[in-house]
Give the backbone structure.
Amino acid sequence: MGEFDLIDRFFKRPARRADLGIGDDCALLSPRPGHQLALSTDMLVEGRHFLNTVHPARLGHKSLAVNLSDLAACGAEPRAFLLSLSMPRADETWLQGFSQGLLALADAHSCELIGGDTTQGPLNISITVIGDVAHGQALLRSGAQAGDDIYVSGTLGDARLALEAFRGTLGLPEAVFELCRQRMEQPSPRVALGMALRGIATAAADISDGLLGDLKHILSQSKLGAQLQVSACEQLLACRGDVALSEQWLRTCVLSGGDDYELVFTAPVTRRDAVLAAAHASATAVTRIGCITAEPTLLLLDAAGQPLANQFASFDHFAQD
Ligand code: ADP
Ligand code: MG
């Protein structure tokens, strides 16, 4: 199977939303009047972002999911994506699974594969997503205001638990491991929630490197601080009732776990009903976990309102260099 057979067989489909899809030197896409394009790219490297034990369909799903999560954080609507794929050989079984997982998620979000590049090399998947958002409506990291509530969507920390189980640091009961593994390998990008929060949230980011690290991006770009209720965050581990974890592990997973692909966002206290309506409309749970402060520090509070030491590092690819 040659390079172009491979593209035709596993990736090429008739263009629907794009003006011109796979097969020419460029794809063509018409911006909707009054909208801005939202562009983002994310690369997945074997051993760094995924383990070689992952099922190819799940890897296909995750490769697009982490990109859609960036669009979600901006409140943008997905339009199309480009796929750059480097792989050691054209393994048909692998390509079948990968493309099926990838394109199923793409269809679920009406996000069309319009082009890419295919080369031989170490397994490496790079996707660029294109979305759009009405002019001036994008959610940014810089918009938080002192006094705003801080919310997080869905659940936190389960992907990290799965990673620790794979590493052998923690033992998990089989059913818990499966749930955590699913969260790690098939995250749900919160696209509908992000779109529903336009005009309500003042700032948003997606949580890829851990809650605290990604919240800090909002704080530094908004030049503000926050008080975070750690006990509220501890409730967000999906499997919390089914696994006995030390307090330290529980906090590490929910506060700095990584690979959650949830949204952390801020909204005025006066918009609490609107936030709940957006959550309801997008069928996504949201939890209020703290508030934005004028004092530019991040304070972690325990259930009694006492400050906790923050020894939770977020993920940084070059932290040791
Ligand atoms: P060449 O390198 O000869 O210019 P291209 O890289 O342009 O060939 O590939 C031919 C067509 O296939 C282009 O439209 C390109 O966007 C598309 N394409 C290549 N690889 C992929 C891929 N992995 N997924 C989707 N489209 C792809
Ligand atoms: Mg090329």
